[in-house]
Write a structure and sequence with these properties.
2 domains, 10 strands, alpha+beta, Anti-sigma-V factor RsiV, transmembrane, Heat Shock Protein 90, five-stranded mixed β-sheet, DUF3298, three-stranded antiparallel β-sheet, PdaC/RsiV-like_sf, membrane
C-alpha cells in the first residue's frame, strides 16, 4: 500500500469515527466567523504609510467593478515602499435549512509607492505583481472548487456548510503573510489553512527554503523539534494524539516536513509550522501548529 492509500485510509477512518462532533465544531466556526465579519465592517480602515529618507506617498488604485458580483473593499495594508492591498474579490452567501455558505474570497493588489527619484525600472514591483498574480490564481482555484462542489451537492438530502475567510497575519517590515481559512462540512467537517508569504524587500513569494542559507539542512532540525513537541504534548495530555512512534502502523507516523509544508513568521519573529486536519494526527486534533524555537535554526537562517 502506497502513501496516498494510507492517507486516504486515515482520512476515512477519522471521518467515520467522529462525524457528529465535527459537524458541531463546523457550525460553531461558521457562526463565529459570521459574527466576526459583522464586527469587521464596523471598524475604521487604517492606512499605514512608510516614512524613509526619501519622501514617498502611497498611490491608491481605483479598481473597476467588473461585475455586480465582484465587491472590492480595502482591508489591510502593510508597511514599506511596496504596499499590498487585500480586497474582496468575491462574496458568496447562501443559506437554507440544509445548505449554508459564507464565502469571502480575497485578492492581493500590489501597489508601488511613488517617489520623485523613482526610475522607470522597478524590479521589486514586477516581482510583486508576479507573486500576487500567482497567489490570486491559487486562491481563486481553491475557492471555485469549494463553491462548485457546494452547488453540486445542493440537491442531496444531507446537510452541508462551507466557509472561506482570510486575514493578514503578523505583517512585518520584511514579510507580508495572508492566511486563507477554508471550512467544509458534509456529514463531517474538514478545515484547511493556506499561508501565502511575500518578501516585501524583493517582491518575491517565499518558500520555506528561502528562509535558510543555501545548502543548509533545515528539514532535519525542524522535524526533530516538532517530534519532540508532539511527544511532550501527548505526555502532558492524554487527549492529545499524533501519528508518531506507532509500531503497529509505522506508515502513518510523521517523519519529517518537506519543502511544501505550510509556514509563517509570527509576531515574535519565530517560524511557525502548520498542519491541516488529518496531516499528522486524527481529524479530531484539528489544524495544529508548532512554533520552532529560534535557537533550533539560528545557525542556518539567512
Amino acid at each position: 500500500m502506497n502513501t496516498n492509500d494510507f492517507y486516504e485510509l486515515k482520512k476515512s477512518y477519522d471521518t467515520s469515527q467522529m462525524p457528529e462532533k465535527e459537524v458541531i465544531k463546523m457550525k460553531e466556526k461558521m457562526h463565529q466567523a459570521k459574527a466576526e465579519k459583522k464586527n469587521k465592517h464596523n471598524k475604521t480602515i487604517i492606512t499605514r504609510i512608510w516614512v524613509g529618507a526619501a519622501a514617498a506617498i502611497a498611490a491608491f488604485v481605483i479598481l473597476p467593478n467588473t461585475s455586480p458580483s465582484v465587491a472590492y473593499a480595502m482591508e489591510q495594508i502593510p508597511l514599506l515602499g511596496n504596499l499590498i492591498e487585500v480586497v474582496t474579490f468575491r462574496d458568496y452567501q447562501y443559506s437554507s435549512d440544509r445548505n449554508n455558505a459564507d464565502v469571502n474570497v480575497p485578492q492581493l493588489v500590489p501597489e508601488t509607492v511613488a517617489s520623485t527619484e523613482k526610475t522607470t525600472e522597478d524590479p521589486v514591483g514586477e516581482n510583486l505583481k508576479k507573486s500576487t498574480d500567482e497567489i490570486n490564481a491559487e486562491i481563486e482555484k481553491i475557492s471555485d472548487s469549494l463553491i462548485a462542489e457546494f452547488k453540486q451537492n445542493m440537491n442531496n438530502e444531507g446537510y452541508q456548510d462551507i466557509m472561506i475567510k482570510h486575514e493578514v497575519i503578523n505583517t512585518t517590515d520584511d514579510y507580508f503573510t495572508l492566511k486563507l481559512m477554508c471550512y467544509q462540512a458534509a456529514g463531517s467537517g474538514y478545515e484547511m489553512d493556506y499561508y501565502y508569504t511575500i518578501d516585501l524587500k524583493t517582491g518575491e513569494r517565499l518558500a520555506l527554503k528561502d528562509l535558510f542559507k543555501e545548502g543548509s539542512d533545515y528539514i532535519t532540525p525542524i522535524s526533530e523539534n516538532i517530534k519532540s513537541q508532539m511527544r511532550g504534548q501527548m505526555d502532558a495530555d492524554e487527549n492529545v494524539s499524533y501519528w508518531l512512534d506507532d509500531t503497529e502502523v509505522p506508515e502513518w507516523n510523521f517523519t519529517s516536513i518537506n519543502d511544501d509544508t505550510s509556514f509563517y513568521i509570527n509576531a515574535d519573529g519565530n517560524l511557525v509550522i502548520s498542519f491541516n486536519e488529518g496531516d499528522v494526527g486524527p481529524m479530531s486534533m484539528g489544524v495544529v501548529e508548532f512554533t520552532i524555537p529560534h535557537d533550533v535554526i539560528a545557525d542556518i537562517l539567512k
